[in-house]
């Protein structure tokens, strides 16, 4: 059985320049590489450690209820762990993201915000607060 060495989420954005500005320049993902071919562009951004979270529909509904108060996410949602959810949420709002839900403490003791970002991605910005009590 082959061992996976990297998880790469590939997003096709209608406004490539805006998506690149938002994720690289505002959210702060480091640029690893960029390529141009036949007038098209791709930039690979380092998002740190990657995990693949698999959930069933019922649990996804629960997460949405906790973080937002209603079902809002599609079948893919991208979550970024940050040091300060409130500050990053404010920065992303200023950069054009639509805040769906302000940072809220979850039952699993993280501070999570929900946003709609460029490239039609729903984002969770989360800050780990420590072990749940």
UniProtKB/TrEMBL annotation:
InterPro entries membership: Glyas_Bleomycin-R_OHBP_Dase (IPR029068), Glyas_Fos-R_dOase_dom (IPR004360), VOC_core (IPR037523)
SUPFAM superfamilies found in the cross-reference section: Glyoxalase/Bleomycin resistance protein/Dihydroxybiphenyl dioxygenase
Pfam families cross-referenced by the UniProt entry: Glyoxalase
Domain named VOC: residues: 5-128
Family annotation (Gene3D superfamilies): 2,3-Dihydroxybiphenyl 1,2-Dioxygenase, domain 1
PROSITE patterns from the UniProt entry: VOC (PS51819)
TM regions (residue ranges): none
Protein name in the entry: VOC family protein
Source organism: Hamadaea flava
């Amino acid at each position: 059985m082959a061992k996976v060495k990297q998880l790469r989420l590939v997003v096709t954005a209608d406004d490539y320049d805006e998506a690149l500005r938002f994720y690289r320049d505002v959210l702060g993902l480091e640029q690893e590489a960029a390529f141009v071919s036949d007038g098209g562009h791709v930039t690979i951004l380092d998002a740190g450690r990657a995990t693949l979270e698999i959930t069933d529909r019922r649990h996804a509904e629960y997460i949405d209820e906790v973080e937002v108060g209603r079902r809002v996410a599609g079948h893919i949602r991208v979550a970024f762990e940050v040091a300060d959810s409130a500050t990053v949420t404010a920065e992303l709002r200023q950069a054009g993201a639509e805040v769906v839900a302000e940072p809220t403490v979850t039952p699993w003791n993280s501070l999570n915000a929900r946003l709609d970002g460029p490239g039609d991605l729903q984002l969770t910005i989360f800050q780990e607060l420590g072990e749940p009590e």
